[in-house]
Write a structure and sequence with these properties.
The protein is built from ten helices and eight strands. The protein is an alpha/beta fold and 245 residues long. Strands 1-8-7-6-5-4-3-2 form an eight-stranded parallel β-sheet. Strand 5, helix 5 and strand 6 form a beta-alpha-beta unit. Helix 2 runs parallel beside helix 3 and helix 7 runs parallel beside helix 9. The termini are far apart. The C terminus is likely disordered. It binds D-xylitol-5-phosphate and zinc ion. D-xylitol-5-phosphate binds next to strand 2, strand 8 and helix 8.
Length: 245
């Protein structure tokens, strides 16, 4: 079975030391850097734009997995492509002309991803699947880090895996939201290729990113640490982060 890829979401990192945080996860074995772009409109939070992506591109050799949580991604595809995005993933809920949007991402030489909110049915991506490089299944409602994984999404991940396999193409299946050491095994068993994890990694006890990344990759099967479990520490950190951003 191919290696599970781990994509730390920098949303939960220390933005004042972003380059150091990215270097730390890269050294700790991360496979991609997940960048959450939020526009304060499609989701009730505001984060980062193309200049930050451009800055990140200069400090890591890892692929940049840019998740566009925005109402009008078409208006920014060129900027994010030029900033150095490796993957650009758009929400089906925000793209009335999804095929055109996907083509425009690919025309810029960027890998195209599509994603859907927990309540959006998989049928909404069925027709576009043969055209994309990545399908991202949201396992929380987008907008914030530190939320709880919606368990019912496991069934959706299984169905997405089957849908991808039917295309005969190597579309990557990524899962984002509430991914922790204690649910990674189930998510991988359901068919995920890439696990996005924000709070599980950046709020790891002792900042031991390497340990959590290894545990996530192993589907939670390695040693008996309690990293990623919903502790008082992570809940408190999550709510203070929500208040800040
Ligand atoms: C949520 C973002 C996620 C988020 C994941 O809207 O798309 O990438 O950072 O954070 P955790 O892993 O803490 O749920
Ligand atoms: Zn994300």
């Amino acid at each position: 079975m191919p290696k599970v890829r781990i994509a730390p979401s920098i949303l939960s990192s220390d933005f004042a030391h972003l380059a150091d945080e990215i270097a730390a996860v890269e050294q700790a074995g991360a496979d991609l850097v997940h960048v959450d772009v939020m526009d304060g409109h499609f989701v009730p939070n505001l984060t980062i734009g193309p200049p930050i992506v451009e800055a990140i591109r200069k400090v890591t050799t890892l692929p940049l997995d840019v998740h566009l949580m925005m109402t009008n991604p078409d208006a920014f595809i060129r900027e994010f492509a030029e900033a150095g995005a490796t993957y650009l993933t758009v929400h089906v809920e925000a793209c009335p002309h999804l095929h055109r949007t996907v083509q425009s991402i690919k025309e810029k030489g960027v890998q195209a991803g599509v994603t859907l909110n927990p309540a959006t049915p998989l049928t909404s991506v069925e027709e576009i699947l043969p055209d994309v490089d990545l399908l991202l299944i949201m396992s929380v409602n987008p907008g914030f880090g530190g939320q709880r994984f919606i368990v019912r999404v496991l069934d959706k991940i299984k169905k997405a895996r089957a849908m991808i396999d039917r295309t005969g193409r190597s579309v990557l299946l990524e899962v984002d939201g509430g991914v922790k050491v204690d649910n990674a095994a189930a998510i991988v068993a359901a068919g995920a290729d890439i696990l996005v994890a924000g709070s599980a990694i950046f709020e790891a006890p002792g900042h031991d990113y390497r340990r959590v990344i290894a545990q996530l990759r192993a589907g939670g099967a390695t040693d008996s640490g309690d990293n990623g479990k919903p502790t008082g520490h992570s809940k408190a950190a999550a709510s203070s982060r929500k208040a800040r951003r």
